[in-house]
Model the fold of this input.
Amino acid sequence: MMTAYQSSSEIERMSLLDDDALMVEIGNGSQFAGHVFIERHLSYVLHVCRKKLGREAEAEEAAQDVFASVWKNAGHWQAGQAKVTTWLYRVASNRCIDILRRRKPDIALDDAGDPADDTVDIERAQQTTDQNRLIRQALGRLSQDQQRAIELVYYREMAQREAAEMMNISLPALESVLRRARQKLHNELAGYRVQLQMV
Amino acid sequence: MPQTMTLETFTQLVGSYGAEPSRWPDEHRAAMHDFLQNQQSAQAVVGREGSLDDWLDQRLEPASDILHARLMANMQSQLSPLETSAEPQQSPAPSLTRRDYISAALPLAACFLAGVIFAPDALELVLGGPDILASLDLFADDLLLN
Done:
């Protein structure tokens, strides 16, 4: 049996691998690699499925099928033939087309989107998930209070007084927490912009 | 009663709640609107905070905990962990050591010894005295001779 420490160091080791190497590890049966793969690509796959299907339950069903396909086919993965994300996009697209056809059996392939000519969509989906990762990293660097305040007021659109009550702080204190959080996020955003200009 | 809006208050409020008026505090919203219409410096503040809002808006709705748990469970059922195969396989029937044989033989030897020591007395007690034992001896001798 592995200890929790060994498991976390193994997951850390796997998270340093690129997608190709991760696929090889999954093909060898590594659950640690599978864990890292889910963490790395779930947002992307789900985003693609949501965009194509528009219904959360169906998008989740499609995402599960995509990952089942990964576990099944990782052993045959040939590094360098295609990008893992491109392959994931195609698997997700095909699965979504199946679901759309099930929804409307007479749907034409053109109406469902042609998976053979979707380079722009793949790039756009990749950019969106990369951006998502950066935002999550930036939010993750805020203090617990700041994260909670942003989550409640910004993402859940909660009224200020209600959010302050939930956090057990006064309204001026909430405003102060939010202001500091947004200031930090401004700095993070400026840092990313500099990085983007350098690329 | 809301105070007169100043650039400092406006900047602080927008710095806290962002550029979207629906997130501004109810008691200040009207005054902030008026201030924004009339002050160019306020528009610069809103523009700056709006770019952060736009950036934050790009966060994707995370996967539900249920979906995440399902994917993890499915993955664990489909992949066999490497560390299990690296562990030594347990033999279904472990081989017996010399120590096992000795500890099994000791009670048997003790029973045999007790039998040798106590059997004559026990027979005498059960069968009723030395005469009976002697006649049993004779009977045995007859059997052996015949």
Residues 171-198 of chain A form the longest helix (28 residues). The CA atoms of residues 18 and 84 of chain A lie 10 Å apart. The interface with chain B takes residues 2, 26, 28-32, 34-35, 38, 42-43, 46-47, 50, 60, 63-64, 67-68, 71-72, 128-129, 131-132, 135-136, 139, 150, 153-155, 157, 160, 174-176, 178-179, 182-183, 185-186, 189 of chain A (CB under 8 Å).
